[in-house]
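Complex 346.
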Amino acid sequence: MSSFFGRRVSVFSVVIMVSGLMLGFLFGLFLPLAVSAKSERVAAYEEVAAQSAVEEVTKIAAEKGKDSPEYGLAYETLPGSKKYNGPGFAQSMSVETRESWLSWMQANRSDSPEFLEKRWELAENFVKNSKELKRTEDLRAFLLVPREHFVRAVNRGFEYADTWLPIGYGATITDPDVVAMMTTTLNVQPGDKVLEIGTGSGYQSAILSYLTTEVYTIEIIKPLFIETDQLYRDFEKSFPSYGSINRKLDDGYYGWEKYAPFDKIIVTCSIDHIPPPLLRQLKPGGIMVLPLGPPSRQYIMEVKKEVTETGSIVISRRDVYNGMGVKFIPFRNEAGSSYRAVQEEE
Ligand code: SAH
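Predicted structure with S-adenosyl-L-homocysteine bound:
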């Protein structure tokens, strides 16, 4: 017993009161502080990225002039000449059991061990419970890419959550489930030329780089392009397949004429029609995967292009999720508006 405002109260009630006060303090003060600190971190991160873009643009202006293509939207890095054999490396990976995979990873890779178990569990779940990653090549490619490299620092803790996450500039890293499904649908063969529209975080292309040596990816948002380009460079020493991804800052609606045709095309921004230039750049017998539909909801479509003996082009479509909708960020043009099949009248 102790005395409190002249009244005798039990130690127990004092403890309850003090913890109540502490909890109140925690939620009333610390939580808002923590939340605002987090949003401040987001702001700071955006600023840093914007700053690096400004520096890059200033450097290009000084070195190549303001009239150079590099200063504007079209900017390419073509490290594909390095030709690292990602699929060859992937083939040697053991996926028999979790233990054999873990020991292969420890012997061959420098991934941070804290994420390995989580990555295995996510992949195992897809293989067992859905139609994804059934092909060993796709499973290996998925298991070889540390998602933690591509999820931005503000989302630490969610690296292996089955959800999409913001990566700045209004863009997102696609949820692992959809990435796995789109990759599976592409059915990439070693040597296939694959074009991705919407590099974003760089995660999807990193996976593709373990399926073929010919990966091409296009991003339209300049600071995001620069950030991901830098990320690939930073990791290239220990993850050489990133170094073989050909990347370009441009409007992906028009594809990449210089390297067309492509065996496979993957579009990771939403659109209500199949962009005709992309369809043209798809090889006969090729596969395109894209989120098709209006901005509110899309369906992941597998589009196959066949050319008949008489020369007519036949396009077939399959909804890979059988009616389940997804939501991707819009396929936009340089001015920032979404591409639409039917333009509204002025
Ligand atoms: N594949 C990405 C997903 C990124 S979200 C990943 O693995 O993280 C979609 C991306 O498409 C965004 O980064 C967006 O900027 C980009 N995008 C939108 N319109 C585009 C266009 N016309 N050309 C190229 N990229 C585009």
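DSSP finds nine helices and twelve strands in the chain.
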